[in-house]
Amino acid sequence: MSLLELSGLTAGYHGGTVLHGVDLTVEPGGVTAVVGHNGAGKTTLCQAVAGLLPASGGAVRWDGEDVTSRPTHRRTRMGIGYVPQGRRVFGSVSVAEHLAIARRRDSAWTVDDMWEMFPQLAARRRHHGGLLSGGEQQMLAIARALLTGPRLLVLDEPTEGLAPVIVEQIRSTVGRLAESGMAVLLAAPQPQWPIATADRLCVLDAGRVTGRFTGTEVREDPKPLIEMLEL
Ligand SMILES: Nc1ncnc2c1ncn2[C@@H]1O[C@H](COP(=O)(O)OP(=O)(O)OP(=O)(O)O)[C@@H](O)[C@H]1O
């Protein structure tokens, strides 16, 4: 039994269909990457997992339980942590307040753990979200999700627009989380991070999974994946 299992997941907006019967499983202790061009449906998939977008068909199972009709706050409580594309940090709320608000009492992580994990945030704890760099905002968005006590971290394009040095820092932090047992679902338009460290990859094209690879396969030979993405 997988931690997260999507079977035949169909979802969209205003009666239109974006995801067409997606099958995907995510296991603890590793990174599962969904790679696809802009508009392929990655955000739609992440939102359907987080419960922000209802499924119009198929099922979302969490730890063997059907959670397809569960609202977002209940999925959060069950252990699905969502880091949205664009970070959604509040401009006039301080870093420390973001974290204090986000923390669930039964979360294994504390705010002090986040200061240790992201020293840049510690240095800016009194700054408002709007004054942070893109990288700092991304760290804050990840810290905020971690404080909900997730078993799965859903990361929607977490490196969008960030400097390579920050990308590397976020990648290694997420890698350590996965090594320590966290399940990670990573949506990425570019395959570099997935090729470097993902355990499993799938290609999403126009709302359909068109390819599946193991990390070992793409590290031995990334060409089939690159060709599939037409890069
Ligand atoms: N709120 C919305 N209302 C209507 N259509 C939407 C909405 N959000 C996304 N779409 C459409 O759904 C399709 C998939 O978009 P989605 O954002 O899931 O793709 P993506 O792979 O995450 O791309 P990007 O990297 O650009 O975010 C696109 O055609 C997009 O225009």
Sheet/helix structural class: alpha/beta
- The quaternary structure here is single chain
- What general outline do the C-alpha atoms trace? globular
Spatial order of strands in the largest sheet: 6-7-8-3-9-10
Order of helices and strands: EEEHEEHEHHHHEHEHEEHH
Domain ABC transporter: 4-231
Family: Belongs to the ABC transporter superfamily.
Keywords: Amino-acid transport, ATP-binding, Nucleotide-binding, Transport
Pfam families: ABC_tran (PF00005)
What does this structure look like?
This protein is of the alpha/beta class. The strands form two sheets. A six-stranded mixed sheet has the order 6-7-8-3-9-10, sandwiched between helices. Strands 2-1-4-5 form a four-stranded antiparallel sheet. A hairpin with a 7-residue loop joins strand 1 and strand 2. The longest helix has 16 residues. It is globular and about 45 Å long.
Keywords:
single chain; 231 residues; alpha/beta; Rossmann fold; 6-stranded mixed beta sheet; 4-stranded antiparallel beta sheet; 10 helices; 25% strand; globular; binds adenosine-5'-triphosphate; ATP hydrolysis activity; nucleotide-binding; ATP binding; P-loop_NTPase; Branched-chain amino acid transport system ATP-binding protein
